Predict the structure of non-specific serine/threonine protein kinase.
Amino acid sequence: MGFLFQFPFAVVHVFLLLPCSSTAVLDAVTPTQPLIDSDGQTLVSKDGTFELGFFTPGPSSNRNRYLGIWYRNIPVRRVVWVANRDTPATDSGSSLSVDTGNRSLVIVSSNKSVTLWSSNATASSNHLVTSLVAELLNTGNLVLRDQNDTSNSEEFLWQSFDYPCDTLLPGMKLGWDSKSGLNRGLTSWKSPDDPSTGDFRWGIQVQNNPEEFMWKGSERFHRSGPWNGLGRSGAPELRDNPVFSYKFVWNEDEVYYQYELKNKSLISIVVMNQTSYLRQRLAWNEGSQSWGLYASVPRDRCDNYATCGAYATCMVSESPICECMKGFKSKSPEMWEMAEWSQGCVREKPNNAEGFVRYSELKLPDATHSWVNKTMSLGECRNKCLQNCSCTAYANTDIRGAGSGCSIWFADLIDMKMFSTGGQEIYIRMPASELGMYSRVKEQGDSNICRKEDLELPLIDLHKIVDATANFSDSNKLGEGGFGPVYKGVMADGQEVAVKRLSSDSGQGLKEFKTEVILISKLQHRNLVKLLGCCIQGDEKMLIYEYMPHRSLDSFIFDKGRSRLLDWGKRFDIICGIARGLLYLHQDSRLRIIHRDLKASNVLLDRELKPKISDFGLARIFGGDNSEGNTKRVVGTYGYMAPEYAADGLFSVKSDVFSFGILVLEIISGKKSRGFYHSDESLNLIGYVSTSC
């Protein structure tokens, strides 16, 4: 999944499977074949994955009997659904049968005098039902259907998936169906030994912009954030990945959330924990033969609902974790000092102007008091907000592509969490007096580098980089160049990054740092490395790039073992990729850019061995028709420098082309330009190639 949260393993309701000498396995329950508890009968899905039967939770002194579903071939029973959770039988004489008159399933007591539980037909049928049958599907869904109706195999008179208990299985829907009036949500067990309805719930609130909530009783304690086309705005790490796929459907007929397992051999479920404020994803570990905790929500204090109150952002890595937004102040400074932030913040000045400030990387605020239009553009959304003096903020509802849709807030902005990356943009209404003062830059002086010239490059706090790199541990060091050391880091949300740290004794300084920030933040090409942010704090100056798992090209072509991974087709693709990136710099970008330090160690390889040109600290920008320059300070790497540049300081696009030619020779030959020596003819690499052709 790409992330793993560590939490103390909470209590979940599991029971040892006890052997039953007279167990009888059924493949269906019919009007003439009930499922009888005293006979030890169970109903099993066709593939043998799930089993339905009567059970007693907890100690042997507990006499209550329930009808439930569990995974059949797992030695530690984990009940995923209970029919009569609030009306248990008190002995083993009860049974599950089909009631043809009411077209339902019923659990009756031992003397058949008391109906303990009954299903209601969910789907309406226009034809005469002639042969009712109850089956347990391979998904774990208990269904009641007409055995003779072959017109629609997916239409059931009733199904357990419409009435979940505390567990969400793959393929199960969490949410509303307007046609049937169903509201599918999870409710915890009362205790590990008592499956009756507990206090904790998880469901979808559908008014305005739908989003998931968790409640204890009527009190909210967690909110997911609205779905933004890719995932929940409050959980940017929960997006489609090699293990899970996530789905959120929102139309006039239904609103629901659903997940699927891409690898069907895996077993993973989502459970509302009965003893704490937690929703947990559990996974079955075949090696340890136990259920393990994969992830849990809320993950931290900032995941708790409205921790910081109104108009404040929460970031768990900060101290304090709550901060008023620009133009706002704490409503109760005394309580704020005592680390009690729930009263939130208030505006410092009246909101009497028509202006907005953009905030990025946020969990969008509570959408209960909002308005939504799925077809508006962001510009139309802004105008709509300006037309209503009660509007406090606006944002896109869908962030895929260029963004689309409009969400407008009309009340205080509550429950906002700040992420290092992956959050969403929102535009918050501000007085004119605040608009000119606003800046996301907290540091003065050199920190403006990352914000000037409309770069809007995210600033990342130093302590986050320290945490991500394990305090710049040697084990995370990827290498070192003229700029300084480069470290691998893993951000709090699981994103892998490469951190270039400017060394105090580096041959490059603030000028080169500025050049790289200005250039790479404006350049967008698949063969150029992507800059994610920068960090300027005290004497520290760092650039944070996307992480390239295969590192630099030189680690492949000059290594006897790894070079075997590069066949001629792959080497040709790498050469073409570098050429495309260089062509973009020289001709296709808005400004002509000369790299001046193109070499194998400055070409990075992604997971698919696609090349990306990096390290723009020595680059030069030319406007108009200018394409060459002169310098007294010759910088770069000997062996790759064009003769006129090394001797006289003259550089142009031809200088980069010369470096590219050397690089092509290295890729083909696997030999370094610097250090190559042919003993017979005393030639370097380029001389040897020229005499051999």
